[in-house]
Design brief:
Low-confidence stretches: 45-49
Largest sheet: 8 strands, antiparallel, barrel
Strand order of the largest sheet: 1-2-3-4-5-6-7-8
Distance between the termini: 75 Å
Radius of gyration: 23 Å
Shape: globular
Number of strands: 8
Number of helices: 1
Structural class: mainly beta
Strand content: over 45%
Order of helices and strands: HEEEEEEEE
């Protein structure tokens, strides 16, 4: 019995098929609100794990107070008194989110938690200041901000401890 191998679609047919699939999708997204105006954009920052019906949390939350004694730019370092609070919520299935509050702004971060190691980042397209946050199990912490005008990186070096 001969096996018949299907012939690939001609390029014109493939393009027509792609266009016909894209049109309904474009129609579905045309009535979405602009970035920053969707109802979910108004949700308050993370503050605590939501309870299940019996009152037990369905996620774990951790709040850390962070202080940074050193601030380094691309070329030099200086003493710093910068600090803030990092709140991380993990769902137990590998998904985590965090927020950083420093008295000037609250920044939402995607996070990964491995034991007591926390890595969190934000692309921050609205501010043009991407950030990377690292907290090691012993409390050592780094917060790096990348600027684009002028291009440079600022790293805060310090520590975080569980908030009381």
């Amino acid at each position: 019995m001969a096996v018949r191998i299907p012939r690939p679609l001609p390029l014109a047919a493939a393009l027509a098929l792609t266009a016909s699939l894209a049109a309904p999708l474009a129609a579905q997204t045309s009535d979405l609100p602009p970035a920053g105006a969707a109802p979910v954009d108004q949700i308050a920052p993370i503050s605590d794990a939501a309870p299940m019906q019996d009152g037990t949390p369905d996620a774990e939350s951790m709040t850390l107070d962070c202080t940074f004694q050193t601030e380094c730019s691309d070329t030099d370092c200086a003493a710093s008194d910068y600090g803030g609070r990092l709140t991380v919520i993990s769902d137990g299935a590998g998904l985590s989110a965090a927020d950083w509050q420093d008295g000037v702004e609250t920044l939402a971060l995607a996070a990964a938690v491995q034991g007591r190691r926390i890595l969190a980042a934000s692309a921050a397209p609205e501010t043009g200041k991407p950030r990377m946050f690292s907290v090691m199990p012993d409390g050592q912490a780094r917060l790096t901000t990348h600027l684009t005008d002028p291009i440079m990186a600022i790293t805060h070096i310090g520590s975080c401890e569980v908030a009381r």
